[in-house]
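A sample follows:
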Amino acid sequence: MRRRNFLAAAGTTTATVVPFVGAPPQVGTSDVIRLRSGLDALMALDASRGGHDGLERAALAGANEALEKQKLGATQRVRQRLFSVAADYTATAAWSAIDARQPDRAQALLARALYLAGMGQDPVVEMRVWNSFSMLAHQRAEYAEAVDSAYATQATAIARRNPLYSSLAHARTAISHSNLGDRQAALRSLGHAQEALGKADMDEPRPSWVTFYDVSELMAITAIVRDRIGDPAEAEAASHQALASIPSQFRRNRALAQVRLALAQVHQRDIDQACSTASTVFELMAGAPIPGRMRSLLGDYYRDLITLAPDASVAREWGDRYRTEWSRL
């Protein structure tokens, strides 16, 4: 009897010890925080250099790590948060592809990010993804789809309850309407964006991907809308307002605003000033390749320049520099 009790006790001890020794390490809140800090570093790189292959690869590596750790999550809440982190990393990779003008990769990555955002029940990432879908549709000249995606951005839970995100969603809608030439709808959306931003708490903590959005960025978007609906003087004024306050760490955004300023100037036939403005982009981005989205915008500027002033010597000189910089980058 004593022998049977001993064996039973030994068996019980073995049953309790073996799983403990072989158990995988548990994943908790500290892992989520560490992974999110990696996102902040990637967004800082994006703000300075723009989208590129290295950024996309790093973001996908972060997403994969989050998903691997999700399998080991200690609680359902931790697992859900890791899905959210993976969605954010994947959305970052998609954004990098958009900025690099790699639309097919961006489309697949955005679809994946939207799925992961649903798994993570994260309305902020969901809003980010729809905002990016709208930008991608614009790149593909699918302007009606860009409007639909912008409306989906407005419909997300975070945009409905938070004025900052609502403002960004309306600003994206304004750009989409301007691409279709719908002047009244574009200006109406800009008004909604301005009104919402006036109600936003700019000191409220927010994810690193949306730190770029403030009054200066809304002015940069206003410049885009105004130029596209045929108001280049208003676009120039808005560009100057944007450039007066876009923080220096957002080098890529400052360079884009300079190109927009140059476009507004060339559309007013101020050729000398436009060429001088456009040339500053190369200095701003010195030391890093120019992202595909910016290269495309510079191409738009050069096309309009030679259309409006084909015989101007300053236009020819700028074209020579443009081709030199293009081949170098």
User: Anything to note?
Assistant: The radius of gyration is 25 Å. Confidence is low (pLDDT under 50) at residues 1-23. Residues 251-329 form one domain. Residues 76-99 form the longest helix (24 residues).
